């Protein structure tokens, strides 16, 4: 785990799920996932978007800051079909599903409207990859 991730995770847990800096005021989640090959547990901090109608669903975006490849947490969660999340002070199991097509585009556009950095990530990956969106539903 990078020092940057470790610092965000520590800040998240110290402040009941809130972090400062570039994430100040943003909804954050800690994604617990297991390596597909190693079986090792990892924790990745990322932003999320709550579903507008179903409080048991949040969406996460495999943007990797606009990098040309998907983050490992995305591959691990999709392969497992499940994971664990920390949201605020709560930790719970989730079922993972990928959102595609028009629904993916609608959800991603809403995230980019709220947080313009996501529009920048999409521009960086144009013609290289479509940034995946995962739905995490409370198990």
Question: How would you characterize this protein structure?
Answer:
With 139 residues, the chain is of the alpha+beta class. It is built from 4 helices and 6 strands. The chain has a 6-stranded antiparallel beta barrel. Strand 4 and strand 5 form a beta hairpin.
Nearest-integer average pLDDT: 96
Give the biggest sheet: 6 strands, antiparallel, barrel
Unreliable segments of 5+ consecutive residues = none
Number of helices: 4
How many individual β-strands?
6
Helix percentage range: 25-40%
Keywords:
32% helix, alpha+beta, six-stranded antiparallel barrel, 139 residues
Brief overview, please?
This protein has 139 residues and is of the alpha+beta class. It has helices at 3-14, 72-80, 101-114, 117-125, and strands at residues 28-34, 41-50, 57-61, 82-87, 90-99, 133-138.
């Amino acid at each position: 785990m990078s020092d940057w991730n470790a610092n965000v995770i520590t800040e998240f847990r110290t402040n009941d799920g809130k972090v400062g800096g570039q994430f100040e005021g943003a909804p954050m989640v800690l994604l617990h996932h297991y390596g597909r090959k190693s079986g090792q547990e990892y924790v990745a901090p990322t932003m999320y978007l709550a579903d507008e109608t179903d409080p048991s669903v949040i969406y996460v975006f495999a943007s990797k800051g606009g990098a040309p490849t998907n983050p490992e947490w995305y591959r691990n969660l999709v392969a497992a079909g499940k994971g664990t999340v920390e949201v605020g002070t709560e930790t719970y199991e989730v079922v993972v599903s990928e959102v595609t097509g028009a629904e993916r585009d609608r959800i991603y556009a809403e995230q980019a409207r709220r947080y313009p950095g996501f529009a920048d990530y999409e521009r960086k990956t144009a013609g290289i990859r479509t940034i995946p969106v995962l739905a995490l539903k409370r198990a």
